[in-house]
Amino acid sequence: MTTSGFGTLPSGVSLDIKPFRAHVEEEKLQQFKKLLELSPIAPAVFENTNAGTKFGLTRDWLENAKDVWLNSFDWRKVEDRFNSFPNFKAPVKDGNGDEIEIQFLALFSKKPDAIPLVFLHGWPGSICEFLDILDLLKSKYSPDDLPYHVIVPSLPGYGYSSGPPLDADYGIEAAAGAIHNLMVGLGFGSGYIAQGGDLGSFFCRVLALKYDACKGIHVNQMPLPPLPKGGELPTDPLQIRALERGKEMVETGLAFLMEHGTRAATIGFVLSASPLALLSWIGEKFLAWSDQDLPLDKILEGVTFYWFTDTMARCLYHNRDMGLPDESPKIARTSVITGLISPGVPYIDKPCGYSAFYNEIVPVPKDWADKTTNVVSFNQHDRGGHFAAMEMPKELLSDVEEYIQKVWK
């Protein structure tokens, strides 16, 4: 595959890599439309009409979204966009030694000194998050002068990648091992950089801690570090704001996480039964966690991707990592989640870049990020939310490039 000249595999590949093409059978597409058409919208009540978004989505928004999804949204155009990039699948071993088939988009460079760079999505994100960044890179560089080998994988359990094994519990460390082995198998065992937000930032931290080949990470989400005890409240405005937004998230925004972590089987069944249910569950997060409302087409793109790839039931394993260290399998517990401050965040010694977007769910200021991470490149943005790659792709890409120029020798 040589899509736009960026599809030539680098030297040193040791994986059995096959070209992949995104395509949903027409029968499945029509079934989806029929299910959507027949899905009823709950009646008007106070919570979905006259309470704003305090209790979640509004009925007006869902009615309009359903109409657009059914009558205007074109999934085939999304597939065409996927297929405009070099697109592959490869079997790799995860951190437990189990085989996972990883699908990934890529822009490979012909430069012998190109820097391997992997972008890692979050939940409820997917490889859709990085399509704009891939387009920016294609427009900025040619295959001959692209400074990076850019890899955008679907994480295990997401999208076109296979899911965790059926006979054992799973977690982020095992899944991150699959990403590491993908990068090594592509010939990047001597070094690579990882970037991510949301779940992707957790993957980045695992890669940095466990694997020498991960030379550094760039993230747009940071954990809250352990803070001094004794009741002394911060006075810095950014610190105050971080705590206030964190408190708000704990009090009003974590019900989904508890459900994912404790009743993954049940919510997986529920959200795999109705496209409209899936849109309600995921669409709320896209709206609530973005700085300014994401365009409806982008939300529908991500939700449709989850639907056609059966992602929702397969991707919930990472929420159990909110459990206690000695639990096996781990179960998300209220006592852990509502603690807000993670007491044992491991320090990342490797050089880290950090893009702080003002309306991140919990906008951790740099001085707190320094407590858990060796931040060598920092950019503060006065807007932007949780989905930085979708909301502000130019700014995020610029930050990543600035970071790489500082650390890659």
TrEMBL record:
Keyword Hydrolase attributed: yes
Protein name: Epoxide hydrolase N-terminal domain-containing protein
Family from the record: Belongs to the peptidase S33 family.
InterPro entries cross-referenced by the UniProt entry: AB_hydrolase_fold (IPR029058), Epox_hydrolase-like (IPR000639), Epoxide_hydro_N (IPR010497), Epoxide_hydrolase (IPR016292)
Domain Epoxide hydrolase N-terminal, residue spans: 17-130
A molecular function GO annotation: epoxide hydrolase activity
PANTHER family in alphabetical order: EPOXIDE HYDROLASE 1-RELATED, HYDROLASE, PUTATIVE (AFU_ORTHOLOGUE AFUA_3G08960)-RELATED
GO biological process assignments: epoxide metabolic process
Taxonomic superkingdom: Eukaryota
Keyword annotations of the record: Hydrolase
SUPFAM superfamilies (UniProt xref): alpha/beta-Hydrolases
